[in-house]
Amino acid sequence: MVVHQFVLLLLSYDRLSKKPLLFKSFTGLTVQEFDDIYNKEITKRYSNYELKRLSKRKNRKRDIGAGRPFKLDVKDRFLMLLVYYRLYITYTLVGFLFDLDQSNICSRDIQKIEKLIRECVPIPQKMYPITKRLKTPEEVEKYFPAGFLAFTDCTTEQQIPRPKNKMKRKTYYSGKKKRHTAVKNQLIVNNSGYILHKIGYKKGRKHDYDVYKNNHPVTPKQVVNVIDLGYLGIEKDFPEQLSALPYKKKRNCELSAEEEKYYNKMHSKKRIVIEHTICRLKKYKIMSDIFRNKLRKYNRISDIVAGLVNYRIMNQQC
User: Fold this and answer.
1) Global model pTM greater than 0.85
2) Which of 29, 191, 245, 318 stands the most exposed, by the fewest C-beta atoms within 10 Å?
3) pLDDT by residue (tens digit) across 7-41?
4) CA pair distance 305, 216, nearest whole angstrom
5) Residue 249 in 3-state DSSP?
6) Total structural domains in the chain?
């Protein structure tokens, strides 16, 4: 006699999708956006992705697919990844919600699907090779609408646990934040907030402009790069590109001319676009709380979050 055991998960797609407000709060996506990514991208690529992943192992003694199968299906694993990124809860709690052992959460169920998700969302690395080759005004207008503007910034530094190694403590210590930080992500967004360029993380000790000079992104010659006072010297170092900086007041003095004050006000109104994009990124707690994962995983995680933010912005424009 065969006995079938049905395990009722505390959190699953079938249960959570019936409550749209909770679904968006837990994942950062609407039910429709989740279904679009899953049905149009993940389901088409998953079989080939798994075959490629399993084929990398050399000296196999068993056929591909003969090992222990995943307890959850692909849809619930994708949901689990989003919930973990959005809420950044502990592995123990994730395991309790999805009825898994906590040792399997990161190393097995999430980590082995992250590369696939990265391929399925519009990450900035897919866009930059296109935007840096734009030449005609019509091509530029498509990716830099409403005035040919690009906004450059380094996101707020993200804290890491205090390193035990003395040299690492010195390297990762930020004098600006007075704490140990490891993450500076240089972003370029267009007037819609869409992320067009993102570099890998840099150590918190490094200045924003040093990051920019060593990882200088190329923008079309018609595009004006709207930046803040942290990038003073950019007009001298990169005279070939159009740049717009606010006026800087002298020490212990205020801006005297009303035109300068008005210009700075308009400059800030334009730059608020990138601040809104950074806010969207930081709504995923894995990008704002103390980063507890290994730093070697940071770039892949930040790519996925940036891709999810881009996907939502694209849907809002349609």
Assistant:
1) yes
2) 318
3) 567 899 999 999 999 999 999 999 999 999 999 99
4) 22
5) coil
6) 2
